[in-house]
Amino acid sequence: MKSIIFIFALLLIFSCSQKNKNSISKKDSTVVAIDSVAVNIDSSKIENLKQESIPNEEPKDGKYSQIIKDKDISAEIFYTIKEGRVDYYKLKVYQHKKIQNLDAVSDWEFKNVEELDFKFEDVNFDGINDLTISKEVGMNWFKLNVWINKKGKFIQEKKFDDIYSPIFDPKIKEIKSYYRVSSVGEFWSTYQWKNNKLIRTSYTEDIIE
Fold first, then answer.
1. I need a labelling partner for 86 at 20 to 30 A (CA). Which of 43, 53, 111, 134 fits?
2. CB 143: neighbour CB atoms within 10 A?
3. What is the pLDDT of residues 5-26, one digit of tens each?
4. Cα–Cα distance for residue pair 180/182, rounded to 1 Å
């Protein structure tokens, strides 16, 4: 009798152990299945992102314009793109329903649209923003086209044609200029406004001999 009870107990223990193994095995397979789905989902997302990503394209040849604003004044620059060359050919200023056309410098060529930098800034330190367009003309220096805002009318200041890399210092109301020509030398200048005229007040050069 005792032997029968012992055998029955062994069978019961073995049966419980087998059920636990089967249960663990099912859980493991479920985890594997879930992981597999997650991998598939991630892969599909990656593929979608690849399909949605569009390579950067160069602007097509044609005519374009950009607008900047300053309080109650807006300025619009018109330019063309042809075979990678960017030229601006016209500017307009909009103020109080009035439109003023400004002459462009026809021989200014830009490498790309990002290089076409025009903005409102106070170049004569009178508290009123003027209009400028910058152009790189060397490795680390640039020139400006400048239109002075005189009582709402923008007038080109051609003195800036001879000033390289101007830096405006409103605290002392001075314009500083510095540029370097390779194998030639370095040049420094300062300018100030006197009686509404731009005057060079200092000049220094360091020529390479």
1. 53
2. 21
3. 555 555 555 555 555 555 545 4
4. 6
